[in-house]
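Worked example 4.2. Below are the chains of a multi-component assembly; read each line carefully before continuing.
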Amino acid sequence: MGAVLAEMKIPRSIHGMDELDEAIAKATKKEKPLVIVYTDPGTS
Amino acid sequence: MAVSLEAFKSFKTVGVVVFADTKKDKASLPKGVADVRAKGGNTIPMVFVTTADGEKGIDALPYSVLKADMREAVRELRKSLEDVDVLGNVTPEEGDDEEEDQTEFEFKQWENSAGKKIKAAVREVEGNRVLFLLRSGKSVWYDISKLSESSQLRLKDAK
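Applying the procedure described above to all two chains together yields the following structure tokens:
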């Protein structure tokens, strides 16, 4: 199951901020940027 | 709010997507977000793009852009990243804000070891670095060892 942000379920392939280190490692390995979606999961 | 959280999955084609909650993650956003925070505007959701290590801001997409056409926003973002070293290890040359006369340079396609391609002209080679002139007029130093084998050979021939 993917991470849960408030009532919204985040797809497994997308990281939450608690997985930022993992996301950075993945982005560096793949030579991709970090794309941070800044939102209030209760209103998006 | 008209933008569904699910829609942001399309940004996976641009980079590694991280969801940040405005209520609890504001203080822990990567450092590079501060560089582009103003461009994100005042309405959420908004999208920030940083280097892979999160240290430098690259771009931001405000809600108005996301709402208008998310697909187009993703496409434009992908295009704008073509000339950017997302690892953040490119040092802009001093004075690169000045317009460069590009007519005397020959632009060619170069590829790094990860398969990422850029179109640039070689201005100078110094030790193990090459100074690329990008189409945008900016000049950036790049480690030659990070280029693909074929690009390294081509560079050697060009010297």
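Take a moment to check your reading of the output against the notes. Chain B touches chain A through 46 residues (CB under 8 Å). Chain B has two domains: 5-80, 102-158.
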